[in-house]
C-alpha cells in the first residue's frame, strides 16, 4: 500500500529530533547555526509534504496499541476529576464514564468513552462499546451539567454501541436517541472531540456539540470500515477499500462541515508523544470553551440546533 | 447500462404487494403459503386474511391504508446528491436512479398533510422499497421539514418507520441526520403537539437510535423486526443463537420499549382515538351516538 520511496514517520521524527538538538545547541552556546539548520528545516517540510496517509492507514493509527485513551488525556488536562457512577436504573457502564472536573482550571462536566488500557481493563469496558446504561448515565450527568451550569466536554472514542442481546433488551436504540435529545437540549455549552474512533450512533450519542473537533488521525463515520465491507462485499477484509469510500478521516469531515477543527497530532500519531497530543487537545477545547463562554444559554441552545439543522447534502427542484 | 440490468428492471415483480403491480391476481402468502386474492389483500390493509402476516408496504400504499383520502404531498422536491462520490460494487448515482425508477420518488420518504378518521395530521412515511428505506440527507431533511411545518400549522405528526438504518453511501452525513431529525422534532414538543411513530417491519439501525424512538407514543405492527443492531451482528458478537422472537414487536412490548402493538386493520381508528385524546378533541358525533345507543340498549335488556 505504501510506496517504498515514501518517508516514514520514523524518518521524520529522527529529523525533527536532530533539528531540536541543533536549536538547543544554538540557544545554549549562542552560536549561529542557521546555515546548518535551514536546509534541514527545508528537508523536513518537503518530507512532511510527501507523507500523506491513506484513509485506512489513519484508521489503523486511530486503533494502534498505545494510542492515548480518554483517561490519559484527562489525567494530563484536568484536576479534581470526580467520577460519578450508575444510571440509577440498571447498572454502571464502564465504557462511558464521566463526572465533574477542572479542565485546565475550568469546572466542566466530562463525558468520556473509555476503551481500556490493559487486556483486563479493555474487557471490563467492552473495548469502549457501551450498553444502554452508559447512555442513560450520560443523560443523568447532562442533567447535572444543566443544573450546575457546567459546560460539557465529551471525548468520543468508540467503534460503536455494543451489539449484544441484553443491550437490545434494554433498548440500545432508545437510549442513544434519548441521549442525543438530552444533549441537544442542554442550556450549557458543549464541546466534543473525537479522539480515536467515532463509530456511528454510539459516538453521536455524546456528539451533539456546539463545536465538534477531531484529532488528526481519528475517524468518524456512520459505520466502521469492517461493517461497511461486510455489507458491500460480504468480506470484512475489504475494510481498506471501505475506508476510502466512506471518507471518514478528519480532513474529509472538515470538508463536509461535520467538524469545526482538526487537532494536530505529533508526527506519526498521538501514541508517540502523548503529552504533546494532550497539549494540543487541551488548547483546542479550552479555546472553544472560552469563545462559547461569552454567549447566553439561549444562544448555546439555538446555535447547536442550527449547527445540526443545516448538515446534509441535497438539491432542490 | 448493462443489458442484463435493463431487463432485470422490467421483469415483473413476484412480491404480491409490490407497488407496481395491479392487485387483480392471485398471490401466495409467503408465510402461510395460502393463495390470496390480491384484491382481498388490498381491501384488508395488506394483512394476510388467513395468517395475519402484515405485508411490507411501499410508501404510497401505506398512505392509502393510513389516511382518509390522498395526501397533500409535500415531499418530492428535495433530491439526493452524491457528495462523497461513493462507489462500491456500483456508483451511488446508479443505485439512486434504480431506486427512483422503481418507486417514482426521489428518495425513501413521503411526507404530506392528510387526515386519519377526520383528525388532521402531518404524515411522514419511510419507503422501504427505496434502497431499504435507508436514511440519508433527503430523508433527514424531509422529516425535519415535516416536523417543523406540523408545528407551525398546529398539527400532530404521525411517522411510519420502515428502514434498514442510516444510508452508508452518505457516511457521516447520514449519521448527522439522526441529530437533525431529533432536534427538528423539538418544535412539536415546544408547541405541545403529539408525535406518534409507527414502527413497521423492519425498523433497525440509526432510525431506532433517533427520531423513531423518541416519539410521545410508539406503536408497532405485529411481528415487525425492530432493533438497533442487526440479528446477524449480535449473533457474531455473542456467539450463540438468538431466542425465538428476539427483536420482534412482541418482544419489545414485553421489554417495555413500545406502547402498543396495533393490527394494521385497526390502526386508523386507534391512532385517531389517541390523537383526539391527546389534543382534547371531542369524540366524533357518529361514534358518540353509536356508543350511547349501545349503552341504552344494554340498559333495557339486563
C-alpha end-to-end distance of chain B:
74 Å
Q: Tell me the Rg of chain A in angstroms.
A: 21 Å
Q: Give the biggest sheet of chain B.
A: 8 strands, mixed
Q: Give the helices and strands of chain A as they follow along the chain.
A: HHHHEEEHHEHHEHEEHHHEHHE
The secondary-structure class of chain A comes to alpha/beta
**CATH homologous superfamily grouping of the largest domain in chain B:** 2-enoyl-CoA Hydratase, Chain A, domain 1
Weakly predicted, low-confidence segments of chain B: 1-14
So how many helices of chain A? 14
Describe the structure in your own words.
The complex is a heterodimer of chains A (317) and B (302). Chain A is α/β, with parallel strands linked by helices. Chain A is built from 14 helices and nine strands. Chain A has helices at 9-29, 34-50, 55-63, 70-77, 119-124, 132-147, 165-169, 172-184, 200-204, 225-232, 239-246, 250-256, 274-292, 297-309; strands spanning 78-79, 96-103, 106-113, 152-158, 190-199, 211-215, 219-221, 261-263, 314-316. In chain A, strands 1, 2, 3, 4, 5, 6, 7 and 8 form an eight-stranded mixed sheet that branches. In chain A, helix 1 runs antiparallel to helix 2 (34-50), helix 3 (55-63) crosses helix 11 and helix 6 (132-147) runs parallel beside helix 8. The longest helix of chain A has 21 residues, at 9-29. The mean pLDDT of chain A is 94. Chain B folds into two domains: 11-55, no CATH class; 57-281, 2-enoyl-CoA Hydratase, Chain A, domain 1, CATH 3.90.226. Chain B has helices at residues 3-10, 38-43, 59-66, 92-103, 137-153, 171-184, 186-190, 231-238, 249-254, 264-278, 285-300, and strands spanning 26-28, 35-37, 72-73, 78-80, 109-116, 119-126, 157-163, 195-204, 217-220, 226-227, 260-261. In chain B, helix 5 (137-153) packs parallel to helix 6 (171-184). The longest helix of chain B has 17 residues, at 137-153. Residues 1-14 of chain B have low confidence and may be disordered. The interface between A and B is large, with 55 and 59 residues. Strand 9 (314-316) of chain A pairs antiparallel with strand 4 (78-80) of chain B.
Amino acid at each position: 500500500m505504501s510506496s517504498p520511496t515514501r518517508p516514514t514517520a520514523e524518518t521524520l521524527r529522527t529529523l525533527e529530533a536532530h533539528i531540536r538538538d541543533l536549536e538547543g545547541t544554538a540557544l545554549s552556546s549562542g552560536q549561529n547555526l542557521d546555515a546548518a539548520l535551514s536546509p534541514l528545516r527545508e528537508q523536513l517540510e518537503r518530507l512532511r509534504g510527501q507523507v500523506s496517509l491513506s484513509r485506512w492507514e489513519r484508521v489503523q493509527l486511530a486503533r494502534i496499541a498505545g494510542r492515548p485513551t480518554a483517561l490519559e488525556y484527562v489525567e494530563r488536562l484536568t484536576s479534581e476529576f470526580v467520577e460519578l457512577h450508575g444510571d440509577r436504573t440498571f447498572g454502571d457502564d464502564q465504557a462511558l464514564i464521566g463526572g465533574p472536573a477542572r479542565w485546565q482550571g475550568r469546572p466542566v462536566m466530562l463525558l468520556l468513552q473509555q476503551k481500556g488500557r490493559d487486556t483486563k481493563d479493555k474487557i471490563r469496558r467492552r473495548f469502549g462499546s457501551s450498553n444502554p446504561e452508559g447512555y442513560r448515565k450520560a443523560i443523568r450527568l447532562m442533567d447535572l451539567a444543566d443544573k450546575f451550569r457546567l459546560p460539557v466536554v465529551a471525548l468520543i472514542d468508540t467503534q460503536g454501541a455494543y451489539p449484544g442481546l441484553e443491550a437490545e433488551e434494554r433498548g440500545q436504540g432508545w437510549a442513544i436517541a434519548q441521549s442525543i435529545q438530552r444533549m441537544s437540549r442542554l442550556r450549557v455549552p458543549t464541546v466534543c472531540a473525537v479522539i480515536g474512533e467515532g463509530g456511528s450512533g454510539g459516538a453521536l450519542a455524546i456528539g451533539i456539540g456546539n463545536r465538534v473537533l477531531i484529532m488528526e488521525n481519528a475517524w468518524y463515520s456512520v459505520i466502521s470500515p469492517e461493517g461497511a465491507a461486510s455489507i458491500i462485499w460480504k468480506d470484512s477484509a475489504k475494510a481498506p477499500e471501505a475506508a476510502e469510500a466512506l471518507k471518514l478521516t478528519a480532513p474529509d469531515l472538515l470538508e463536509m462541515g461535520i467538524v469545526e477543527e482538526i487537532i494536530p497530532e505529533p508526527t506519526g500519531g498521538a501514541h508517540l508523544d502523548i503529552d504533546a497530543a494532550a497539549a494540543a487537545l487541551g488548547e483546542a477545547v479550552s479555546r472553544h470553551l472560552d469563545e462559547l463562554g461569552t454567549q447566553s444559554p439561549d444562544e448555546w441552545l439555538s446555535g447547536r440546533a442550527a449547527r445540526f439543522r443545516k448538515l446534509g447534502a441535497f438539491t432542490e427542484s | 447500462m448493462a443489458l442484463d440490468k435493463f431487463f432485470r428492471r422490467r421483469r415483473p415483480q413476484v412480491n404480491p404487494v409490490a407497488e407496481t403491480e395491479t392487485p387483480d391476481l392471485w398471490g401466495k402468502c409467503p408465510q402461510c403459503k395460502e393463495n390470496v386474492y390480491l384484491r382481498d389483500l388490498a381491501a384488508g390493509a395488506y394483512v394476510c386474511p388467513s395468517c395475519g402476516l402484515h405485508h411490507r408496504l411501499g410508501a404510497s400504499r401505506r398512505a392509502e391504508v393510513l389516511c382518509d383520502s390522498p395526501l397533500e404531498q409535500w415531499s418530492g422536491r428535495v433530491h439526493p446528491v452524491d457528495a462523497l462520490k461513493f462507489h462500491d460494487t456500483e456508483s451511488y448515482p446508479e443505485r439512486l436512479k434504480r431506486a427512483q425508477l422503481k418507486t417514482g420518488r426521489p428518495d425513501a420518504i413521503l411526507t404530506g398533510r392528510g387526515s386519519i378518521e377526520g383528525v388532521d395530521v402531518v404524515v411522514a412515511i419511510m419507503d422501504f422499497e427505496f434502497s431499504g428505506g435507508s436514511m440519508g440527507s433527503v430523508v433527514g431533511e424531509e422529516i425535519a421539514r415535516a416536523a417543523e411545518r406540523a408545528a407551525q400549522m398546529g398539527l400532530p405528526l404521525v411517522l411510519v418507520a420502515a428502514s434498514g438504518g442510516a444510508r452508508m453511501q452518505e457516511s457521516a452525513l447520514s449519521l448527522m441526520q439522526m441529530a437533525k431529525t431529533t432536534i427538528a422534532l423539538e418544535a412539536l414538543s415546544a408547541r405541545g403537539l403529539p408525535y406518534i411513530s409507527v414502527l413497521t417491519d423492519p425498523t433497525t439501525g440509526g432510525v431506532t437510535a433517533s427520531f423513531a424512538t423518541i416519539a410521545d407514543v410508539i406503536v408497532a405492527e405485529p411481528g415487525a423486526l425492530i432493533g438497533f443492531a442487526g440479528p446477524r451482528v449480535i449473533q457474531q458478537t455473542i456467539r450463540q443463537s438468538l431466542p425465538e422472537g428476539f427483536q420482534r414487536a412482541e418482544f419489545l412490548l414485553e421489554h417495555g420499549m413500545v406502547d402498543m402493538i396495533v393490527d394494521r386493520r385497526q390502526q386508523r381508528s386507534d391512532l385517531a382515538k389517541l390523537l383526539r385524546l391527546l389534543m382534547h378533541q371531542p369524540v366524533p358525533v357518529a361514534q358518540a351516538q353509536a356508543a350511547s345507543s349501545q349503552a341504552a340498549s344494554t340498559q333495557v335488556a339486563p
